[in-house]
């Protein structure tokens, strides 16, 4: 009887830990993405203008595609 109670306690504790871990990780990712948004075309255009380049829509699209492909690889 005692062994069954300990097994139940361990299972319940594991479930509580998994649920708590999920919500903590979710909150962390929301905060991270809020503080560090992913790069979009407008940000890329601004960076190119600051470097003295005149960005065309074709060049921006190529760079965004290239960055997305790199993100998938890594």
UniProtKB/TrEMBL annotation:
<dbReference type="InterPro" id="IPR005359">
    <property type="entry name" value="UPF0154"/>
</dbReference>
<keyword id="KW-1003">Cell membrane</keyword>
<feature type="transmembrane region" description="Helical">
    <location>
        <begin position="6"/>
        <end position="25"/>
    </location>
</feature>
<dbReference type="Pfam" id="PF03672">
    <property type="entry name" value="UPF0154"/>
</dbReference>
<comment type="similarity">
    <text>Belongs to the UPF0154 family.</text>
</comment>
<protein>
    <recommendedName>
        <fullName>UPF0154 protein PECL_998</fullName>
    </recommendedName>
</protein>
<keyword id="KW-0472">Membrane</keyword>
<keyword id="KW-0812">Transmembrane</keyword>
<keyword id="KW-1133">Transmembrane helix</keyword>
<dbReference type="GO" id="GO:0005886">
    <property type="term" value="C:plasma membrane"/>
</dbReference>
